[in-house]
Amino acid sequence: ALLIIPEPDLEKGLEMRKWVLSGILASEETYLSHLEALLLPMKPLKAAATTSQPVLTSQQIETIFFKVPELYEIHKEFYDGLFPRVQQWSHQQRVGDLFQKLASQLGVYRAFVDNYEVAMETAEKCCQANAQFAEISEVMSWYLFLMFLRLFFFTALLYKPVDRVTRSTLVLHDLLKHTPVSHPDHPLLQDALRISQNFLSSINEEITPRRQSMTVKKGEHRQLLKDSFMVELVEGARKLRHVFLFTDLFLCAKLKKQIGGKSQQYDCKWYIPLTDLSFQMVDESEAVPNIPLVPDEELDAMKIKISQIKNDIQREKRANKGSKVIERLKKKLSEQESLLLLMSPNMAFRVHNRNGKSYTFLISSDYERAEWRENIREQQKKCDFSLTSVELQMLTNSCVKLQTVHNIPLTINKEDDESPGLYGFLNVIVHSATGFKQSSNLYCTLEVDSFGYFVNKAKTRVYRDTTEPNWNEEFEIELEGSQTLRILCYEKCYNKTKLTKEDGESTDRIMGKGQIQLDPQALQDKDWQRTVISMNGVEVKLSVKFTSREFSLKRMPSRKQTGVFGVKIAIVTKRERSKVPYIVRQCVEEIERRGMEEVGIYRVSGVATDIQALKAAFDVNNKDVSVMMSEMDVNAIAGTLKLYFRELPEPLFTDELYPNFAEGIALSDPVAKESCMLNLLLSLPEPNLVTFLFLLDHLKRVAERESVNKMSLHNLATVFGPTLLRPSEKDSKIPANPTQPITMTDSWSLEVMSQVQVLLYFLQLETIPTPDSKRQSILFSTEV
């Protein structure tokens, strides 16, 4: 069928067509260089064939290099024709004739593929037959070339030419998308696309049975050491891969879609012998690939959908519904989990092949990145490498049986588990560490898993010049279905010139890492649990205490009935003209003075003991509170501000109006939503309103520095939404359809999402029209 598209915007279409064509020019250059490298020894081999000691016969040379010169000439002509046209680009410029001619010569590719099996067998036999000449110096170079050819043949002579047609087909799709139907190129490009698609269909039908027919030989010494799903960054796009670390190579594979009940299969994308693998060192001047970031609201929407599907599965099981319904739900769950795994990681992990090719993966945790590096480096000390093309294909096929990680993603396919992780808050005290061999500047970070990937949640202060740091710092960490707590210990490097730069960013040195499983049974008694984590000869002492989600949903007002933390917001301050509470003003001022560029401000936990000390100072109206704040970590000040709003007897948005805000944010008509939300906002008591507007302006200023502090409007809404809106009662005020019962997980997820969306709505409004009198009352005094 012909591809019919509407007329695109001419200017935009012109620019996009040039961009697409520039991309194909760059890839053509690379492809031609590959063919040139392969053709380079062909003339010497032919010359040697006429001597008394030929390395290969003329027939063998013809078989191995069959149609490669013709492929080179075809693409050289295509490149030479396309280059000047792109250089002199205009709306009337035509390129369709070049693509049509290229497609008409696909018969050369057909002959190449038909000859492939014979060519590969010939190359293998020649390598084995010429092994006897390895000790003869005159023939040594030819022998090495043949060994190289045997390794190179499968990837370069089979996949690269066919891959060229595949890429050309994708380019034709893109060109047609941005080419007006009235343009002379349009019918030519459609004809080229039709020919290319037909060719690829016939080639795939022939190659697929060959790949499936291979099996793994028994008794192989190669062993699988580690495998994992990982996200590869390919030309700016995220691709889900399954990565395998064997005793002698690092292999990246793509899981093929299962069709018609066929068994699971992999396609090998690329591999690197461990003897050739290094970790990319990035110079200051070197450009690091831009990582495409996914908006936080999209990630949160995926998490909500995953929670809902899991609860649908449990509900169907309890209702003893048919297995077909449950299987459909499990398929939807797997799709959503795969999508979340694909979109969430943003930390670069780069591997480099000494032939010059680099690959970039995206992972979520420094722990995982360090683990992969350690495993690879350890194996490099004792590995040797030898791999034929046939062995590579057999190895790829064997990955289905060898893989140890079957579910996508790694930790969240737990629909059969009645206790899929912990929800609530985990208090962690990092006490001390021993076992360091020399004095260093040391600190720790804490990670927990959330929806299948790990997130950095807290960081201790740097304990300087010691072998036995005593941090004794407490953190409160929110858990979302978490099952594991990880701790990483770093040496802080203050001399940036001596810092090792990998993956495009400066990193301190990891001294040790370890983890503990969060056992729901052991943590249910609400008492502190002491534990020791051993890591590379270092021992870190921790205490943990868990507060369940059900308990944490309750608003916990301060027990103190006088002072800053103990009363309603309307009577916090003494001066009527200062409706914004003193603690709010002081914390905001200090954060705006020195915390606006702090990475993760309001998200990263402050030290709990510092927060409690600052709270106590505000409780007694301590005149020295400003001095305390100036000497305190800015994350502790941010934590104090959040704690103030959490401990108010009722939320800033009030218990009375909270259900109305939840209903208003659910309206679909934007005009009705704006009218409803603004009227509700103006219905708040005046002290509540002016305090919220003061905080809102501050949070917008924080988000203006997002490029540095990594705190978007959505991130800030996620942190403050539940704090400002969570009602005094645990029970949800969100109306639910009585025909669709909602479990605790659904209720919690939906309620939190609603609270986040309410705050995000106001953060995204450019202006909020309010009476001048209420705006003017934001003017404040620094007196208590």
From TrEMBL:
Q: Which domain of life is it from?
A: Eukaryota
This protein is called what? BCR activator of RhoGEF and GTPase
Which Pfam families does the entry mention?
A: C2, PH_19, RhoGAP, RhoGEF
What organism is the protein native to?
A: Aquila chrysaetos chrysaetos
Q: What cellular component terms from Gene Ontology apply here?
A: axon; dendritic spine; membrane
Indicate where this protein is primarily found.
other
MF-aspect GO terms: GTPase activator activity; guanyl-nucleotide exchange factor activity
Alphabetical list of CDD domains matching this protein: C2_ABR (cd08686), RhoGAP_Bcr (cd04387), RhoGEF (cd00160)
Q: Which InterPro entries match?
A: Abr/Bcr, C2_dom, C2_domain_sf, DBL_dom_sf, DH_dom, PH-like_dom_sf, PH_domain, Rho_GTPase_activation_prot
Please give the SMART domains that the UniProt record associates with this protein. Answer: C2 (SM00239), PH (SM00233), RhoGAP (SM00324), RhoGEF (SM00325)
Q: Which residues form the C2 domain?
A: 406-533
Gene expressing this chain: BCR
Where does the DH domain start and stop, copy by copy? 16-206
Domain PH span(s) in chain numbering: 223-381
